[in-house]
Amino acid sequence: MNSFAEIIATIKKYDRIIILRHQNPDPDALGSQAGLATTLRQAFPDKKILIGGNDTEGLKWLSTAETVTDADYQGALVIVTDTANQPRIDDQRFDDGDFLIKIDHHPNDDAYGDQLFVNTKASSSSEIVADLIESCDELQLTKEVAYYLYAGIVGDTGRFLYPSTTQHTMEVGGQCIALGVDTAAINNKMNEITLQQAKLQGILFDNLQIDASGAAYAVIDLDLMKKLGINQEQANSVVSTPGRLKEVCSWMEAVQKDDGTFRMHLRSQGPIINELAKEHDGGGHPLASGATAQNAAEVEQMFEELKEIVTEYNQKGE
């Protein structure tokens, strides 16, 4: 792994920098991407710095992408934030640049890039970007930069509820508050849902299958989304909902895609579930991962496997 000093040295060498993140971005992907782009633009106004990828409708209030041409990639430095593996990078031209840097906090199962900085103990990639800024006198944590990084940290810590939240996480958040970031507005925006999404939460509670072990799952198929008038992005907003139930320890939500396959969202309050995700074309954090199920039968298979994981966890008394 490379040091912050080595990454900064590489950044200084390039006049054109393209910053990418993962597909279907969450607040941390957008926050780390836009926060890094903003601090670099402020420090190096003569450099051309572009934010690539596809926009997520529900998060346009946080950040939007820019047009990046094939020509832009020629001779450019490409930096990818918050993306564990190459297939999930939200622009498959990422390797067309001259040099590639990975900045991430997920398990480093795919150690791509010419340079990489991965800290799995960090709450978020936004926290890592804040540390990168702190390490370099030429970069500044301004109010504008802090806005993006605070949103990313809040998003990936579940408003500081998840175990990944550390003293350092809170210190970085405190720095953002001290700079005058309207944290209440960010929190309120993230807490906002549509009436259709609220109805989906109610249906989710009704349809959630809960095993005696504490494992649970629910399926959100195309018919249900059509009935409620919501898309896959909006359906993803209820991923954390089952975790509010006392009876639920670990859970999966299967959101059907247009091709009939299912995007699997795995969450846990104790048992490690990312190895299960890896077995089904996915991966992620020990307690928060994603995977793909080709059909309903694979969804059922994954639930059986999840029950085994949770049962074993309970038997160990962890």
UniProtKB/TrEMBL annotation:
<feature type="domain" description="DDH">
    <location>
        <begin position="16"/>
        <end position="153"/>
    </location>
</feature>
<dbReference type="InterPro" id="IPR038763">
    <property type="entry name" value="DHH_sf"/>
</dbReference>
<dbReference type="Pfam" id="PF01368">
    <property type="entry name" value="DHH"/>
</dbReference>
<feature type="domain" description="DHHA1">
    <location>
        <begin position="222"/>
        <end position="311"/>
    </location>
</feature>
<dbReference type="InterPro" id="IPR003156">
    <property type="entry name" value="DHHA1_dom"/>
</dbReference>
<dbReference type="InterPro" id="IPR051319">
    <property type="entry name" value="Oligoribo/pAp-PDE_c-di-AMP_PDE"/>
</dbReference>
<protein>
    <recommendedName>
        <fullName>Phosphoesterase</fullName>
    </recommendedName>
</protein>
<dbReference type="GO" id="GO:0003676">
    <property type="term" value="F:nucleic acid binding"/>
</dbReference>
<dbReference type="Pfam" id="PF02272">
    <property type="entry name" value="DHHA1"/>
</dbReference>
<dbReference type="InterPro" id="IPR001667">
    <property type="entry name" value="DDH_dom"/>
</dbReference>
